[in-house]
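Methods: example folding runs. The two proteins below were folded one after another, and each record is reproduced exactly as written to the output file, sequence line first and structure-token line second.
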Amino acid sequence: MADAVYRHGFTLAGFSERVFAHVRKEIRAGVIRMTNPLDLGDVFDIRFYEEIIERVLQEPDVDGVVFGHTYTHDAAIPPTQGLIRATGRLSQQYGKPVVFFLVAGREHFFALRETDDFPIFADPEQAVQALAVSRRHHDRQSLRTATQPLPSGRVKPVGKAPLTPSFMSPEASFHLLRSHGLPVADFSVITSLREACDAAEQIGYPVALKIASPEILHKTEVRGVHLNLKNRPALTAAFRAMNTGRVLVQKMSAPGREVMIGGRQDREFGPVILFGLGGIFVEVIRDVAMRICPIDHEEAVRMIEDTKGFRILQGFRKQPPADLKALNTCLVKVSRILVEHPEVQNLDINPMLIFDEGQGCIVVDVKIQIDGI
């Protein structure tokens, strides 16, 4: 069990003499080693098990307990049920998690597990892993409580949401990301060819033209995107081919590795953030990691590493590693948006381009849906 404890990032607390003195009263063969983990192998007393669990929970250096019990025969079912229930009560009483693993035959294990709501596990590895999950959940809840809104004036509110779901305009979506410090490709929304040419000159060629309509979600499917326009004639031809009112002129970015960052307000978990490889194949590849918001930088690292695309971002087939530090920062900032703006029901940044290490990243496209309040 000690190996599992260290493997999941825990340390073994030192027990006080008060605990060991209580154990010595019940020793029969005198073979118990006074250490942690504490082997109670020659003590067969359910009442004493309850007492020792409580004594350990009272230890100031103990944050949680893993307790293992060996089920021996049918006659032990009622006392074992009582021990499981007592363990649950003690965990609630002292406000510390206790995980219980039971060594028993398959039939008896499942029979006992269904007698009470308190969870029991089949081996110490599962038990310690459950304790690690509990710790991560507690850390996230603490982070959410500690998250403070950005100082007044830095973030403009999205505004009162309509009574029915709708998508924010591209410029409003980009402005929201920028207000939270995310890097966004330079852009301008125009309504005429002359404005398009002026915007391109100001932004600098090459540029892209995109339909600036929140109702059109998949612009490439309606030929609403023209990329890498290097001069005025190319821009003019693309603009006339689009035949639409509002158009977004955007600076073309250097090539990078495409990722997506998404988020939504989940009915069960609240705001959640998603991350994976991006581009047009994201719906096919489905290589996505998800976390409950908000996340910190350590959780963002784990989130990135959970995806198969992490190998590509690390550097693959002589490619240099991507700027994971910049990506990490963006994930944390998007999680803040989802927490501070509950009216943002769905958010989809795709793609975000990640450049080589030290060169940052940039948002190329985003769709944000706001819902009724």
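Second run, written to the same file directly after the first:
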Amino acid sequence: MEQVEALWSNRLYPIHSQINPLPDSLIAPLDKKKLDANFPSGKANLRASLNYGGILYAEYKSSIEIIKPPIDPIIAFKLIWQDEFNKTKSVVQQICDFSGVQLIDMLQKNLKALQAKNIKSRLLKSLSYTNYSLSCNLSENSQKKTGIFWYEAPHMSSFFHAMNASKIVIDNNYCDLFILIRAAKLGKPNTKGYQLYESMFGATTPHTHIIPSLEDVHYLRTYQKLAYEAESGDLNVNFQTIDLPTLEQLVRDSGVLKDCQLLQKLGLFEAPPSPDVQMKEKAQKFLINLLQKECLLGRSFIIGKLRNQFIALSDVDCEEILQDVHIRGSLTIINPSPAKPKEQLVAWVPQSS
């Protein structure tokens, strides 16, 4: 029987190694008394004893309540979001799959979830276009009234009339900032509709034209679908039914909308830096680390190191990076004048804590 106990102990060791403190018995949770009772002769076939140990272990597992750690509701919600987002991507193939009324409804629901204030439908006074518009304060602290008009109809005659309706809003100061959201074409520059558009959304005006992407609509539509489920009591997260206010809180806490570029352009999220900016920031950090290590280097040597490390940067880019770090006070040029740049030395300036 000692061989049987040794066999059981060997099989149970991986489980015991994960337990703190260790159990008193090397064969826990199996019971030596049951082993003796099942083999009263004191002799046992090793295969039979191993099978019997498996039966006892299964009985033990079925008799205990396994307490699973609670699932973070944010993690659970992100999984639901990603699943719904993927479904939306597979179904929605183009922005014009939706009417203008549907698009502005999607946007309005997302704005509400992100705590835009004083959201009101139907900013435009024209009955033909009012359902495609809204007004709001995009941030809690902003007193600026923003008007938004999402219009995707492709016909240029309709576009002309839509621009006329927009001009009435701007001329009568119905809002402080007017935003046109449109991915569809604007027409040729010599058309009346385009000329009206240019007069309202050109470079010299405060008003803005945002071109939405299909991915923007995927984000907005995903939230809209979840909002409908929450309103009807059909949304469950982490085995709990979620109402609309709870869904809105989950959306804010989880940050699932932060990569929507349309919402970034509206100022609801900070847009990530461009790839060029990111590369220059990395180059600045590289330069600072290099100088911290070497303390003193030739200017031309530094430019060469930056070019080798970041091949997309030009000599001019590298000089700008060096100057930026110089302005920040992290380096000093030992002999700035009258020495030529290639003869100059650059030294690290330790920062006081």
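Comment on the second run: The mean pLDDT is 88.
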